[in-house]
Amino acid sequence: MSAPAYVPVPSVAPATGPTAAELLDFALRTAADPEVVGALPLDPEGRTWIRLDGPAGSEAWLIGWPPGAGTGWHDHAESRGAFAIARGRLTEHSLAVRLPSEGWRSLHLTSGLDRSRDLAAGSGRAFGEHHVHEVLNESPGEHAVSVHAYYPPLPLIRRYGRSGPVLTLEHVERPADWQ
Fold it and tell me: What global pTM score does this model have?
């Protein structure tokens, strides 16, 4: 059997906590555990999730994605992270640029910054701090399930609107908004 596929992304890790590679390893191992994945109730209308114990103080989630579900553009602030696909397929659209963390409401993006990845069951993706992306289940009829891990635990999530090359900060969520 071959090793799970993943897309490595270099990251600079703070002195403590798991690295992005360690978070990806956790996500891949957890996504391969049928007992954990089978514990997630699936809803045909919206995403579902269960909080998991991540490694070394990280925050982790098992997430169900009905057909057509997506996150919208967002980042995870100062947290690095990883996600792995347990079932189905997910598409990640991301920006190959580090955005300023503060002091802006709208940015005009230059061409060539957009990246897209299709990830199938058994594959995953690690990313560094301030990674701006959106994740989608583009399947017309199949649920997807994925495992996500972040360190440090998410201090906030910034949500963005996107119209062509213009990215606009729309809203900031705090942990109390999703727990």
Answer: 0.87
